[in-house]
Design brief:
The protein is mainly alpha-helical and 188 residues long. Helices cover 60% and strands 7% of the residues.
Length: 188
């Protein structure tokens, strides 16, 4: 097998992409920690719970929807439980299963954190691009998810489902109000 080395331009683009991602995620992480005391991964957990019926998900479903492995998620939920943000309940239909539920205190924290988070996402990504570039970024992101999962993607919901099916995690970022639109586009 012959290695297909990156060209100079491909290498430059790859390194620039890495730097851009690290800079953006660093700024988002710093803003959330500074303003709400939540690391981005914890914020993501709260978002997924807030969007679920009854603000609750089985731990296995929450792990599949988040960027956490099952063991890391269990640790994160324990930390959130200590702060009164999440409660863990026994699953009524499966004695082995557990459910994580967002508390009123947790929902209030999420509502308080969401505007600053969205402002930071706008500053770090959306407002730095033209509307055409935002659309291109969506297409590029879908192509990247498809390459990683082996499934073609046309919407946020499909991207999450593909990543869940292939690796049990989801790297998509979402704000407290994010849902997939009927037309297959992500909300702005």
């Amino acid at each position: 097998m012959t290695t297909r080395w990156l060209t100079d331009e491909e290498q430059r683009t790859w390194r620039l992409f890495l730097t851009a991602c690290q800079s953006m995620f660093g700024a988002i992480e710093a803003q959330l920690l500074r303003d709400s005391g939540l690391p981005h991964g914890y914020y993501e957990i709260l978002v997924h719970l807030s969007e679920a019926p009854g603000r609750a998900l089985r731990m296995s479903e929450l792990a599949a929807a988040s960027t956490y492995s099952k063991s890391r998620l269990s640790h994160a939920v324990s930390r959130l439980e200590e702060r009164g943000i999440v409660v863990r309940l026994d699953c009524p239909t499966d004695r082995r299963g557990q459910i994580a539920q967002l508390t009123e205190q947790g929902f209030a924290l999420l509502e308080e954190a969401a505007p600053g988070h969205v402002d930071q996402v706008r500053r770090s990504l959306i407002d730095a691009l033209t509307p055409e570039q935002v659309a291109q970024l969506g297409e590029i992101s879908a192509a990247m998810v498809a390459a990683a999962t082996g499934r073609a993607i046309t919407s946020c919901a499909e991207a999450e489902a593909a990543v869940k099916a292939s690796s049990g995690c989801c790297g998509a970022d979402a704000d407290a109000d994010a849902e997939s639109d009927d037309d297959g586009t992500c909300p702005g």
